[in-house]
Protein 1
Amino acid sequence: MSEAYVLDGKAIADGVIEEVASGTRALVARGVKPGLATVLVGADPASQVYVGAKGKAAESCGFYSVQHTLPANTGEAELLALVASLNADPAVHGILVQLPLPGHVNAPRVLESIDPRKDVDGFHPVNVGLLSIGEMGRALIPCTPAGAMIMIDKACEALGATLAGKEAVIIGRSNIVGKPMAQLMLSRNCTVTIAHSRTRDLPEVAQRADILVAAVGQPEMVRGSWVKPGAIVIDVGINRVPGEGLDDAGKPKTRLVGDVAYAEAARVAGAVTPVPGGVGRMTIAMLMANTLEAAKRAAGA
Ligand code: GUN
């Protein structure tokens, strides 16, 4: 059996960014510049990196981009007031409040205060509902599953496969990935199973999958023996695990692995996403795509 087709997240994400930049130029020519506002509360280093990367991507797409950085002790009322001002700002089409928020803030209350039309994360219950009733043209879809879906389409193209009628198994039932991923696969006429930590005989369930999506946050949990020969395997996990030796500063090295044992899976699958360089590259690209989409809808374009 030959090795699986490797889905290159960087190349696919770069293609999405190019399309967004070109769509932005067309919208700007009509007098509308897409705007993305990010909100970061506190100084969590990982969140700072993510929010910085989102701002940079927004600028590279030709958006108006603004970052609001607030101290960790910011009160909920102040945060709600900031969101209200961004809701009312016609230059802002997308609002992203970086998670996690500090413990004293009611995160669902803040996310639900975002105008659903500007909710480029797709976390607002209105967008969750629109996705679940199949109103894709009105919903904003969470970025990671939307990006995974594009990779699945690329895999189908490469393998000459079609999705309708296929068995899709999603391991993980989070609101951010597992559940919206299931809705997307269902909208593409797959037969969908959502497996999770209480699923009986998970390897057997996974082996049914023509499309297997792993989104559990367990390093290399999905083994090669769980993969049906020729399946499309999408690994959403990003887990940092101990590596070998010491880095330049004398600290133990770490490395990133997915939820799938990559080398094993690649020997069996038809197509597979690597970690790093797979689905992770797609999330920010889809955030840009959602922001352009929100701006186009606001402009009636
Ligand atoms: N924190 C980690 N991932 C995300 C994301 O996709 N959106 C937001 N808002 N916060 C996050």
Protein 2
Amino acid sequence: MNRQDKLRVAVLISGSGTNLQAIIDAVAKGDLAIDLVSVLSDNPSAYGLQRAAAAGIATDCIDYAAWPDRAAYDAALNKRLTELNPQLIVLAGYMRIIATTTVNQFAGRMINVHPSLLPAYPGLHTYRRALDANEAFHGTTVHFVIPELDAGPPFLQYRVKIHADETEHSLRERVQAGEHIIYPKGIGWIADGRLELRSNQIWLDTKPLAGPIVIDEVTVN
Ligand code: GAR
């Protein structure tokens, strides 16, 4: 496949970028046919920017602190994304809420990975909250982005059983290992034209998806 034929993908990050790395590695291995056109961050010290640069991917930092207010930052991010016009925007540990105008502009073309089995535990501190509630399972979800936080249609989940001696650290490690499997997989489905969101319905291989496909930790170990 020529570079021109591949889905043009921009990745938004705020921090370490281990999910970005998993995507970069999948592309390098030939498992994921996408064109990574840019890695954007709101945080100039995000380590993920170094990962992108090391892989030869264009980077862009729209430093949140450099703008007088949220509206100015939102406008700058929108301008940059509009210029890039990616076919898919992948939020990979991007820790800011994206303005409604931008979400709507890229409706069906923006996905996120969130560390919980949505609709359980939207928002922050999902590991702590799941442990405090004595949940039997936790996990992570890949979903399309809509203006309401962590509420867009999900299509892929990775589920882990919470162990008796589980800590926030051990749970995060296991869940993130799962993210590194399911996020490149889900992006690949979109890139290969197998999965799309149409009129708020997800279609996979021309069949409507009733709910997210769930991959259990044991099945991939
Ligand atoms: C990921 O685990 C992702 O699920 C989470 O941030 C982490 C970023 O890790 N995202 C959210 O919490 C978004 N609400 P990474 O920078 O190493 O990919």
